[in-house]
Amino acid sequence: MTLEGVDGAGKSTHMAWIADRLRAPGRKVLVTREPGGTPLAERLRALVLTEHMDPIAETMLLFAARADHVQREIGPALESGAWVLCDRFTDATFAYQGGGKGVPAELIAHLAQVSHDGLMPDRTLMFDCPYEVARSRLDRADKTPDRFEREDGAFFERVRQAYLGLARADPKRIRVIDASGSLEEIKKQVEVEISGL
Fold first, then answer.
1. 162 CB burial (10 A radius; 0-12, 13-18, 19+)
2. pLDDT digits 0-9 by tens, 13-22
């Protein structure tokens, strides 16, 4: 399972709670994130979040991190029978680098095939909210914003629309969560989506 959405939508806020709900029936659950999840991928994450670079280079670094993550963590966890709960995966690349920065979808799809051939989440919760809601949450956060969090409203809207397009194209896998309300309102929606898993 993956959690997706624009920065400030609140997906990371719900990560621990969702992991606890998935573990409740006695499942083993690996909780991880992208970019990141391995020592190499975390170093590449630091570059992507801080260094300005060409969108193609950025995309290739993301897939280098993802390939290492899949090989060292996600693949072995799945093979052992564990569930994987990941904060972002390839949908994020289609949304941020594709929708947000104009990287061709064909290139992203090709890199996805090379780095994690056929491996996709069974279920994705896409946290969706308007720019004003996400921006106010980011402004209240107690951390220095990374370079994606500092992007303007136009970038945010391109990313959001790319995510919504992915959800329309694959509604069985990608479930849209209205993330504009309170934590409790969002939890109720999430509960509905994960209760049958």
1. buried
2. 899 999 999 9
